[in-house]
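Let's sit down with a protein and look at its sequence and fold side by side. Which protein we use is up to you, so please pick one and set it down. Label the sequence line and the structure token line clearly, so we can match residues to local backbone shapes. Go ahead whenever you are ready, and we will take it from there:

***
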Amino acid sequence: MSQPPPPPPPPVEIRRESRVGRWCASRDSRLAGWMAGAGAAVGRHPVAFLVAAVAACAFAVHSGVHLLREENDLEALFVPLDSRAVSDRRRVDALFPVNYSDYHLGHETRFDPPAVSVIVDAEGAGLSAFSDEVWATLADIERAML
């Protein structure tokens, strides 16, 4: 009797490790080593690290970091403050103030962010946000606001 043929050999897996893969692996192991060393240093000298952290916070407070303010005005962010456009606009604003009793959209000299937000809840009425009724309601609200 003849024996069955032997099973085929498993496919040969060719692993070509790239330089990037080796670099990432070595970087991760280096970073893990540095973190372990930093943790050990903090564990050995906790008072020194506490004093260093308090000193860094005191330096930040003393240097005025807490006095920084956020600037949202697009003109102040992107237009030089001493430019001719800014001085001309200030002059026009002084000569022709905005008349809110006879206000027309588009006659302003500044583009301030909108101050009104309207939230429409379509789920409360059992409607989809993409239904025609919701979009018709939004169009009515927009016409009423303008």
User: Anything to note?
Assistant: The two ends are 96 Å apart (CA to CA). Residues 72 and 78 are 11 Å apart (CA to CA). The mean pLDDT is 78.
